[in-house]
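Batch queue: ligand-bound targets. Current item pairs a single chain with glutathione. No template structures supplied; prediction is de novo from sequence plus SMILES. Inputs echoed for audit trail.
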Amino acid sequence: MSSLVVYGAAYSVYVRIVRLVLEEKQADYLLEPVDIFADEGVPAGYLERHPFGKIPAIAHDGFRLYETVAITQYLDEVLPGPALMPDAPQARARVRQSIAVLDSYGYRPFVWDLFVERVRKPQEGGTSDAAVIAAGIEKSRKCLKALADLRDGDAFFFGDRPSLADCHAYPMLRYMQLAPEGAALLEEAGWPLRFLEAMDRRPSVAATRSPLEPQD
Ligand SMILES: N[C@@H](CCC(=O)N[C@@H](CS)C(=O)NCC(=O)O)C(=O)O
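Prediction returned. Tokens below.
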């Protein structure tokens, strides 16, 4: 039996992306806690797994890998279960393009400028910066429009079942939804609500719920 360890924390967007892929593949894995935001800093030894001190990293039968896009494509190729990449080269390119757009233009405004600034900062005793949120709204709107232009599915990004693009988008859009300004943008765009509803019905989402989401 193969061994698969994910190093990271359940609150992390990028760790959840990897775990969504694993759950969609119905793979067995162990989540080994690594808290890179600990007061003492990145845990001793973890830099051997990830020289930049970020999460996630994985070990699969001793094969070490970091960087989420490399991890998810590797897992999709080596694990049994439904393929999370389409067959056609142009469709595969669209999946990769959507992921690159999410990483390059979505993650910062969706997660940091809206969710962290509006929700997490006050929870931790800080004060939200209205200018950061205002700029985040504009950047998020632009990114949601770009993603809308790439998608060809109704609920899922491509076709009628999840792909790596859906696993990549869900944790970012879910956090964004928890900020009122984020929820309003998702409603304005329309498609993200259908996407989130479809993903919310999947066992993979229930199995990877973030401790930072409302617990009901
Ligand atoms: N390029 C990395 C990004 C991973 C990343 O940013 N992870 C966040 C947690 S969601 C992190 O480790 N942040 C710690 C830091 O930036 O110091 C990947 O794709 O895996």
